Amino acid sequence: MTTTDTVHDRIGTARDDLTTAQLLAVFAFVAATAFALLFLQEPLAHDAMHNFRHAAGVICH
Amino acid sequence: MLADYLERGVLAGAIAGIAYGAYVALVANPLVGYMETRAEGGDHGHAGEHAHAAGEHAQAAGEHAHAVSEATTAAVSIGSGVLWGILLGGAFALAFYFLEPALPGRGRVKADVLAAAGFLTVSVAPWLVLPPTTPGAELAFDPTLRSAIYAGMMAVGAVVAAASIYGYGRLSPDNRLLGVGAAAVPIIALVAVTTIAAPTIVEAGTLSAELVTAFRGLTVLSQAALWALVAACFGWLQTRAGAQPAAERHDDLLTSP
Questions:
Q1: What residues form the membrane-spanning segments (chain A) (predicted)?
Q2: ipTM > 0.90 for the complex
Q3: Segment B175-216, tens digit of pLDDT
C-alpha cells in the first residue's frame, strides 16, 4: 500500500481508485440528495420535521 | 479507500444518529411540545380550563402552525434525527478522507479536530447570527433571506475553521502554545465581530428567558455531542479496520525489525 501524505495525494488516489462512472454516480447522487433536501421544503414534509428543526437549531417559520 | 472511509462514516453517523433520534424522542419532542403550548398560552392567557383545554389548545395551535398531526411530527422528527446523523457522518467521512493529511494531531485526534471544525461550520457560526429558535419566537426578515444568511455564515465558519487549523499548523512546530493562540484568534474574532455587528434576528417572544436559555443550551450541547459521537465512532471504526494514517505507518516501519 502506498503511503499518502498530502491532500493532493488523496485527491490523486481518489482519482485513480474511482472510475468516471463511479464519480458520475456519486455526483448524481449528491445532486439528488440536495434536490431531496430542497423538496423537503414542501410544506407537508417540512412541517412534519418541525420538532427536529427546533432541536437541531435549523428553523424557518 | 474513499469508499471504505465513506462506509465507516455512514456507519458512525448511523450510530450517532440513533442516539440523536433517541434524544429527539425523549427530550426534544416533549420539550418543543411543552414550549409550544406555553408560547400559545402566553398569548391568550386562559389558565382556567387547563387540563381539558390544553389538548385542544395545542391542537389548534398545531393546526395553526403545521399541516400535519402531532404524532406524525413526532415520528418524522425522530427519523429526521437519525438521517441527520447519517448525513453528518457521510459528509464527515468524505471530508476526512481528503483533509486527513492536513489535519493536526495524530490518529483519533484528527477526527476530533475535524468534528470540531464541522460543528463550528454547520452550527456555531450560523447560530452566532441566528440563534436556535424557540417556539413562539419572532423572526426578522423572510425565510429566504434567513436561509441565505445561514448558508453564508456556514461559509464564514468553514473559512474560520480552516484559518484556525492553518494557523496552528504553521506555528505549533516552533511553539505549541503559540500555535494554540494562532488557532484561537480567528474564532475569537468571529465571535467578537458577530456579537458587535450582527443584527438581532431572533426575538425569543413570550417564553421566560430561563427557558429560552435552557433550550438553546440543550440544542448546542446536543449538536456538539452528535459531532463528538460521530468522531468517536469513526475513529473506533478506523482503528478496528486497521486504517492508520501515513505518519504512524511510517513509525511502525521504523520500529519493527
A1: 20-40
A2: no
A3: 999 999 999 999 999 999 999 988 888 887 788 889 999 999
- Predicted confidence (pLDDT) per residue in A13-58, tens digit: 888 888 888 888 888 888 888 777 777 667 777 888 888 988 888 8
For the stretch B17-35, pLDDT in tens is: 999 999 999 999 999 999 9
Residue A2 lies in a domain: no
Q: How far apart are the first and last CA of chain B?
A: 27
Q: What is the pLDDT of residues B146-170, one digit of tens each?
A: 889 999 999 999 999 999 999 999 9
Query: Phi-psi region for residue B141, left (φ > 0), alpha (ψ -120 to 50) or beta?
Result: left
> Between B32, B65, B147, which is nearest A55 by CB?
B32
The reply to whether residue B68 touches residue A44, judged by beta carbons under 8 angstroms, is yes
Q: Is the Cβ of A11 closer than 8 Å to some Cβ of chain B?
A: yes
Query: Which is nearest to B37 in space by CA: B65, B68, B61, B53?
Result: B61
- Give the minimum alpha-carbon distance from B240 to chain A in angstroms, rounded to a whole number: 18
Half-sphere exposure of residue B235: CA atoms within 13 angstroms, side-chain side = 16
- Domain extent, residue A23, equals 7-56
Where do the structural domains in chain B lie, given as residue ranges? 2-255
